Amino acid sequence: MWSRAARRRRGSGVAVAVLVAALAASCGSSSSPSPRAPAHVAPPSLTVEYAPGLTEDLYLPRSRGRVPLVVLVPGGSWTTADPTGFTGLAAALADAGIAAAPAHIRAAADDVVYPVPVEDVLCAVAVAAERVRARGFVPDPVAVLGHSSGAHLAALAVLAADVYAPRCQAPVVAPDALVGLSGPYDISQIPEIASALLGASTDDDPAAWASANPVEQVERRPDVPVLLLHGSADDTVPLSFTSQFAQALEDAGHPTTVQVVPRADHQTIYGADVAAEPIARWLLALTAEDPSR
After folding, report:
1. How far is 147 from 266, CA to CA, in rounded Å?
2. Residue 256: CB partners within 8 Å, gap ≥ 6?
3. Which pLDDT tens digit goes with each residue over 74-113?
4. Dihedral (C-alpha) 96, 260, 269, 158: value to the nearest 10 degrees?
5. What is the rounded distance in angstroms from the CA atom of residue 94 to the CA atom of residue 58?
6. Does domain 4-289 have CATH number 3.40.50.1820?
């Protein structure tokens, strides 16, 4: 297991140094609207409080019945997590026949550390699934989508769902699928940034770092399918994070799809015009693969 010092040496390459600097400067946040987001977006169907003080917006498709549900987890370098920038993507997914729920989760700025943000994701999923059912939909499959550090949290919530025991306002749901957008999945390469997630008390705790590292969890739930998108022009999180994670997933048996999006950067990768079509196509294909579910 990597000690903190070993992690620093392992992550000392030029690409990782660039990542650390870029994330520190921008927080890798999904809260900034994509430059190509739609100018006018329909409001959510409803906003629900999935935990005290924490809300998620539900964008529902027009036709009821069996539909995919995807909870969207924003980035923010594990320091903040504001889903404002997901508005366009969520609305576009709903137009394509998918229930979409951008969720506020807690982060270091809220004085919480791991595993609280992952537990928030799972509670957002649980309540979204319950509310979608109450509206006459059958949420199947249930997916979690994350951008940047949100992709890291989404990966943990999906791959290691059975590890966590959050106290939610609805029955906990183990997600069926994962969508990651430009995530720094191997936190052993970026301890300077990931320390915001784990807190100072875990600096020399290899078990905590392994538990919070999706790359260390890929052998869990190997039947879960994964879609990974990364922009070819991303100069914040190197493409190598996605390619290495994809290889680890494939080696563990996960059905894994990777798409490098030409000219997309770290922010435009979650724009509706960039991400909605490939994500909707992939999720709807999962629905069609097993109509008996």
Report:
1. 9
2. 225, 226, 227, 228, 246, 249, 250
3. 999 999 999 999 999 999 999 999 999 999 999 999 999 9
4. 70
5. 9
6. yes
- Cα separation, 219 vs 113, in Å, equals 24
Q: What is the pTM of this model?
A: 0.90
Domain boundaries, the chain: 4-289
Distance CA 20, CA 128 (A): 33
Rg for the chain (alpha carbons), in Å? 17
Residues 102, 7: Cα–Cα separation, whole Å: 32
Residue holding tokens 């409803």?
Answer: 46
Looking at this protein, which amino acid is placed at residue 181?
A: L
User: How far is it, in rounded angstroms, from Cα 230 to Cα 250?
Assistant: 17
Least confident range of 9-23, 137-151, 185-199, 244-258: 9-23
Q: What is the number of residues in the chain? A: 293
Say if CB 230 and CB 181 are below 8 A apart: yes
